[in-house]
Structures are given as C-alpha cells and as structure tokens.
Write a structure and sequence with these properties.
This protein has about 260 residues and is α/β, with parallel strands linked by helices. The protein has helices at about 10-20, 25-35, 90-100, 135-140, 160-170, 200-205, 240-250, and strands at about 1-5, 60, 60-70, 85, 90, 105-110, 125, 150-155, 175-180, 185-195, 225-230. Strands 1, 2, 3, 6, 7, 8, 9, 10 and 11 form a nine-stranded mixed β-sheet that branches. A two-stranded antiparallel sheet has the order 4-5.
C-alpha cells in the first residue's frame, strides 16, 4: 500500500478544482478559504466553502457515483437498521436522499439478495452470501457507471453532502482509495474507491481475506495508492439501540443530521 496522507483538504489544487462547481454567490467564501490552502483541518467548519459545495461531485476530475451498503443482519441493533425511522423517513432513505443531493447515481448494495426495492434504486448483489462488506465493495465496482464509487454504510445517520465533498476535495490524480482516519483507525465504510482497485479486491476475497482493508496489502507489484483524510465527527455509526437513541436525542436538539 502506498500511503499519501493525511492531506490538507483545502490545498490550492483542490480549491482550483472547486471554483468550477461553487455557485457565484459563494465565490467570496471560496476566496477567503483560499487563504487556508496548505493548512490541515481536523474537521471542516460547517460554514466553510466545503460545506457549501453543490453537486455533482467529482474526484480528481472524474465522476463519482455512490453505493449504500444495506445488506447486513443488524444483529447488535436487534432490528433492521435500514428500516429505523428518522422522522418521516427510514434511515436508509434518509442517507440516500442526502447522497442524491450531490451524486447523480446512487445504488444499493443489499448483500446476496435484493432488498428495499420500494426505493426504486438500482441494486448490486454480492456474488455469494456471508462474505461481508468487502464483497459489497466488489459488487459496487463491477460495472460501476463512474470511475469513482463513494461507498457508504447505511448506519451512518450523520453522513451528508458535506462528507462527500470532503472526500472528493481530498482526492488527487493517481489516488485509488480516499479514506478518513488512518491506517491504524480507518473508516472504510465511508470512502472513495476507484474502479481500478477491483482486481485487488477480488484477489483478497479469493485468498479468503474478508477484512474491509485487506486488499490494501497485496503483492508489492500491485500496490494500492491510498490517501488519508482527517477524521470527521459525522462518521459515527449506530450499531446498538443506545447509540440510535443518542442520535435521535442529538437530532431533536438540532445537532444531529448533517453536522460535521
């Protein structure tokens, strides 16, 4: 694995690429943000230019689509996490809606069987059951409609357009994976994957390695270029009932959905 981070997500090159997508009314914010080029930011301010970006997102000049992983068994939650209610929506439909704000194509990774067809979205299926989320990544990359796939777990209720814009702003030409966190504490279930890593993912699965980051350490002749970005607070997932209750309480107090 070639390591390229952490990176400075508001560096000059990223700002130049953003100028073509930020509305004219936000140009002053972008110019003020340019003064921060080269400064590492642990978590971007929600009022910064990054939080104002509108879609469609691009990463290193290439198009991005999204796949929401929703094929798990929700054993620790005790009920289907994707079907939990967030106001008038389910958790899954809430995540999908926010991704659709900035990504033109959102597909569902439902494991080895089709689920949630009522949402009317394309579904990608694992080639075999019980292979875990790495098989979901493989399915997402096969016939991906764009060079980049933003992979998102459905149990991230705070994920937002701003999360995706941070990933895309950090991507540089030649990168193959863009993740928040670090090699020791990665966040592989809210990350950008280039379809060029499909072979490495398949190789890991064929070798019986199912850990989500196992494909990053392949044969030295097949190194994967990874860029690490600063961790964000909106990546807190919900696995247990008490975590879900905490999210609902935060949301009620106005500090839940979409906060970075």
């Amino acid at each position: 694995m070639i390591r390229c981070g952490p990176v400075e997500i508001l560096e000059a090159a990223a700002l130049d690429s953003l100028r073509s997508t930020v509305p004219a009314s936000h140009a002053p914010d972008l110019e003020r943000a340019s003064a921060l080029a080269g400064v590492s930011m642990p978590c971007p301010d929600p009022e910064s230019v990054e939080a104002r970006i509108s879609g469609p997102l691009t990463a290193a000049g290439e198009a991005v689509s999204a796949v929401v992983l929703c094929g798990g068994q929700s054993v620790r939650m005790g009920t289907d996490k994707a079907a939990l209610r967030v106001g008038e929506e389910t958790l899954l439909s809430s995540v999908v809606r926010r991704l659709q704000e900035v990504v033109p194509v959102v597909r569902l990774g439902t494991g080895s069987q089709e689920r949630y067809t009522e949402l009317g979205l394309p579904v990608v299926l694992d080639r075999a059951p019980e292979l875990g989320p790495l098989a979901g990544l493989e399915a997402a990359l096969i016939d991906a409609p764009t060079p980049w796939v933003w992979l998102v777990a459905c149990d991230l209720p705070r994920v937002s357009a701003q999360t995706g814009s941070a990933l895309c702003a950090g991507a540089q030409p030649g990168d193959q994976v863009v993740q928040f966190g670090s090699e020791q504490q990665p966040e592989p279930l809210c990350a950008l994957y280039h379809r060029s890593v499909l072979g490495a993912v398949r190789g890991a699965l064929a070798a019986g390695r199912r850990r989500m980051t196992s494909f990053l350490d392949q044969d030295p002749c097949d190194l994967v270029r990874v860029r690490w970005l600063p961790r964000r607070e909106d990546l807190q997932n919900v696995n247990h009932p008490e975590e879900w209750q905490r999210f609902l309480e935060d949301r009620h107090q106005g500090s839940g959905e979409g906060r970075a």
